[in-house]
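Please predict the structure of the following assembly.
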Amino acid sequence: MSAECVLETRGLEKRFGGVVAISSVDFNLKQRELRCLIGPNGAGKSTFFKMLTAQIKPTTGQILFEGVEITKAQPHQVSQLGIGIKNQVPDVFNNLTVRENISVAARSRHGKARAAAIASEVTERLGLTGLVGRLVGELAHGQRQWVELAMVVALEPKLILLDEPAAGMTADETNRTAELIREVNKTAAIVVVEHDMQFIKQIAHTVTVFHQGRVLVEDTMENIQGNELVREIYLGKADDD
Amino acid sequence: MDLLVVLSIEALRAVASLALISVGLAIIFGMMRVINLAHGEFLMLGGYAAIVATKAGINIWVSTLILAPLVVAIIGIIIERTVIRFLYGRPRDTMLATWGLSLFLVGITTTIFGNTTEGISAPAGSLQVGNYYIAAYSLIIVLIAIAVFAAIWAVFRFTRYGLIARSTMQNPEMAAALGVNPPAVYAATFGIGAGLAGLAGGVMAPITGIVPTIGAAYVAKAFITVIGGGPAVLAGTVSASVLFGAIDQIITYLSTPVIGEVALLAAAVILLRFMPQGVTGSFFRRAS
Amino acid sequence: MTAACNGTGGIVAAVIIGLALLVVVPLVVDPIFLIELTSYVILAILALSLGLIWGYGGILCFGQSAFFGIGAYAYAIAVINMGDSTIPLILSIVVPALFAALLGYFLFYARITDVYFGVITLTVTLILYKLMGTTSGSAYTIGNAAIGGYNGIPAIPPLNLPGSPTTFLSLDGLFYAAGLTLLAVYVGLRLMLKSRFGQVVVAIRENERRAELLGYDARFYKLAAFTIGGGIAGLAGCLFANWGMFISPDVFGLAQSAQVIIWVIVGGTGTLLGPIVGCFLVQWIATQLGTQQVLNANLVLGTILIGFVLLVPKGITPTVLDLIERTCQRRSYAKPLVEKRSVS
């Protein structure tokens, strides 16, 4: 593999009993690349993310992060190496304040002073300054999404996985999310799972389409939109919405 | 040769006893996901029921095999209706409340019967094996255990209640939509589990005697067996009883009963550590 | 949680109030009751240890009295052999902490659920009870110390000044020693919970998977918290052996294990004050019950436990603290609390 490559999977496969969720996925991501994953529900995108972060173990195949094999690693080890993930539903510490949530994230890989600086910078950048003393469990769904994003950014990972970051957000919040993704992308590679085509157009250059657990096609957004096969299985439906 | 026969019968008795004292707990946990810390006290109540009835002149077999389970099943249903039903879906709180129940039952029996050991003598005399004598009651316990397990299997496999109970535990809303009354099924299942504990308590009473605090002696063994058991209530209880009963008997034979119990616990904890995804791991994971 | 109520100011206030109680209480209460009170203070340290691992670590330990008992036995056996109490005191913390670490390693690293954890820790305690019960007779002596089975170990020498075995701690002195220990443990835990370690432990209680995805090994943090809790419980056990100069397997009994749980649930999980309050309250009730013969203590404790689980699951202190916090907030911020929902 090239030194450029931040993430690589080889023949990745996951079966749940007789059901094949992911099958022979070879995925490559370059340093500081921004990639979108699309595909209908059940295509295996979330399963793929969960395997990359060691939340579930692959049945066969390998995962390499910056050339290091992490197939059998623990979730915390993967995170320490520099992979951060925002899950589909807000996955936060509900009975802690916004400040405490972000501070726990920032202190994972940094000393006290550096972590404090990162935390206050991230808090401001994500517009959470007014909410720092609030319990996260009391916030609206969209605000909790922002808190989780802030936690992931505060980790300062080299690879960020975002599972439907714009779900449940207003148009304005979605724009801000796109802006944030572009900015964070200056220092980290990012993979985004999304259904919102407008959002994908805003941020993506290359798009990977998952279908029935396999990579169907990988191309630029323009070409994907012109691809008949993709239209049939996915975009056709999305355009009807 | 004779010694081997005697030791085999003793080992069988140990396995059968373990299976008997655990099966009520296994049903209540396996079917209802309720950890019943008052299980030992259900056994204790069964023991008192058997002893009081026998001393009142009722035939000992009627007392231990019919009255003891019946009395404890009724107590179990009352407890399910007044305490347990408010706590479904809250496993931690259920454990705490059943612990409270355990103390409460110890307290109330101490108030009624006092803190002295009561007993009845084991029926059926002894059998001669070569130069050795063994209590015929040991063999009877084995037979009772076999009968109980066969009956439970038949009830859950073939009867209408068995079908309704299994479907209710899978999906209470759907069962309710199909005209089943889930609260009644929960109460009945808890009652059956309690009744089986009562039966075990009655059967063990002639051997151990009974005091209000005897539950503590049973509960550790029963929990270890259920933990080791696995997701299948009957097969799990039987296989764990065989494994742990054998360990218990061998270590007890080599040292003392208490060391046997320590070995049993150590075996369960170590089993857990190295087979977290095995029968035991998947078992309790589902509970949470 | 507002800074005004719960920050450094709170700790300073706690220290001042604690020291004031230590000075005033012996002057105003009757000496017999002071002895009783000393035992409450010691048991409150045990309650705090469970308050840490259950209330903050989210670890459902039903066998906290195991560490208490191991600490007491470790102290008793060591001090009978050594004379000087310094090393026995250290052992009373280290031995149960190591036991907790060993047990915790098997349980946390197997990633078993909390319900399962409760059952296993309870079982361990029950078996320790039986095991210690069988240690009567001359075969079971460690050095000069006969373990004594269910009869226990009598005439345990009290704590002394390090290096000077003849300068004993009197029963009055024990009140101050226990009080200062309770205060020190309380303050230590408050500071620990404010540290990175404490924050991570609480975060893991809140959402274990999220904490792991942020790079924290939940198994390790839980094990560390559990070990610390075990050490604190052992220290309480050492003081308890001093208080009665006697220790028996009853410390491992079902009733003792249940009591610790009852203190914490009555006082309230998720606070440090709660377990202390719960311990004093329940022990006082238990003492009152002991003086009459009508109601059995188990009956009453069982009823209290069932009642709190069903009716007051949060315990007394959080309910009261919510009230104080609201008043406190009204004072510090004059603006109305439009959006802020109550934490309860």
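The first strand of chain A starts at residue 5 and ends at 16. Residues 32-58+69-82+157-241 of chain A form a domain with the Rossmann fold fold (CATH 3.40.50.300).
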